[in-house]
Amino acid sequence: MGHYDESMPDPLPEFTEDQAAPDDKNKTDPGVHATLKSLSSQIETMRSPDGSRKHPARTCDDLKLCHSAKQSGE
């Protein structure tokens, strides 16, 4: 790792906080926000499955940890 190989891509540039801050010139694509929101929702259902066919829990313990108020068989 201590040597430079020309076949390797250039490292990403480093930015200061001011340079990385968003500004009004760089408008983000609304599709990106929609995709991120969808992915966030999918990840949350994986983290906290409800036991349904669409979002099954891996184990009964997982279901109990995520939804302790559910009765057995719900």
From TrEMBL:
Secreted in keyword set: yes
Region of interest: Disordered: 1-74
Q: Please provide the record's keywords in A-Z order.
A: Collagen, Secreted
Recorded hits in PROSITE patterns, A to Z, give:
NC1_FIB
Pfam families given for it? COLFI
- What is the top-level taxon of the source organism? Eukaryota
Subcellular location per UniProt equals: Secreted
Q: Which Gene3D superfamilies does this one have?
A: 2.60.120.1000
**Which residues belong to the signal peptide in this entry?**
none
- Cellular component per GO? collagen trimer; extracellular region
Outline the extent of the Fibrillar collagen NC1 domain: 30-74
Tell whether Secreted is among the UniProt keywords: yes
Biased region (Basic and acidic residues) positions are 50-65
Protein name stated in the entry:
Fibrillar collagen NC1 domain-containing protein
